[in-house]
Amino acid sequence: MEEYIGSTLTKLKTKQYSELTIVIGNESCDLDSAVSCLVFANFLYWQHNEMKCKVCTKEYRDGSMEYKDEIFLPILNVDRNDFPLKTEVAFLFREKGINVGDLVYRDDYDLPQLLKSTKSKVVLVDHHVLANKDKFLAEYVTEIIDHRPIDKSEWTYKPDTRTTIETVGSCCTLVAQRIKDLSSLMAKDVQYFNAYPVCSEMLHATIILDTVNFSKEVNKGTPHDEEMILFLENLLKPTDCKAEREKQLNTLLAARTDVSQLSAAQLLRKDVKIVGNVLVPSFPILVEEFLNRPEALKAVSEALTQTNCDVALLLGMDLSEGLKRDIAVFSSSNPQKAVLLSKFLEDYNSPSLGLSPHQLSTAPECRYYRQRNLSASRKQYMPALHRFRAVL
């Protein structure tokens, strides 16, 4: 992995490449998005080198002729200074010996200019609905791997775009399956996974976290997730699979929920998406706890202004004593829209979110709800928000 990252960055900086493929995850840059991005870009690099015609490149190898190869660049969809907010991502990468300082972040390059500078392709992982700031990527997209319900309301991709879209617990499940399938087509079966065991380990850990180790209460794990976990465990051969799963879950949960040193403003940036003019931060703590922090609503108002949004949908989750979820809707500039969004989410039934209204004395300006449908994560809220935008 170190050799792959180093050689890719060197070629990128010196512009010694003939074609560029960017792999990029969604704007929340959570563990699923970050691991999917890094592992799939690494696989494309491996696949390219396995298939590259040795005869065609022979005349370049003595150094007498300049040879420019393709590069496969993972870009973490977060600004470099905000990466430390992704506590579980930073933890896992460090644990696996990946130097996070050597990775490429969203603000490291002018992406429109980078894509225009040479023949370029883009692979989207862990999302297929582009944020407004990413709309320019659409014309370059050649492949999509995502685990969200398909949404074609803003589908502007080319007809021949290769898609792997399936509702499973983790995008890493689909990445592992795609790598497995492509390797088999090359008659190389599990060679990639064996060549890069650190990637197998990261895929495994992420699927465990995303499915909460196949918790029946959370109900996010699917048979496909289980199939890929068993496939990876057959390669990794842990001494005790059950114990290893529990260890990974507990370690990553501790890393993700360690937000004691983060301010309210930092928590809002830790895991955030934007749908139209709706800011949708997700917390590893309950919204009620977030709103108890000093100047929490002031931070929300400032975040709304900074992102040109007019309403915030705050999503909270706590796993310390069984799963709990809650939400709040808030707007300082457009309270009527907050009321409309709240009512829309109360009545939404695809699926029902099971929202129970409560009053918070610490934040009476918010419309606050406890969520009875514990399996509904932000993934289920996104289609609701797109529909809300359509009917508003």
TrEMBL record:
Domain DHHA2: residue ranges: 249-389
Family: Belongs to the PPase class C family. Prune subfamily.
Entries under SUPFAM superfamilies matching the protein: DHH phosphoesterases
InterPro entries in the record: DDH_dom, DHH_sf, DHHA2, DHHA2_dom_sf
Keyword Metal-binding attributed: yes
Cofactor(s) in the UniProt record: Mn(2+)
Superkingdom in the source lineage: Eukaryota
GO CC, any one term: cytoplasm
Name this polypeptide is given: Exopolyphosphatase PRUNE1-like isoform X1
GO molecular function: exopolyphosphatase activity; metal ion binding
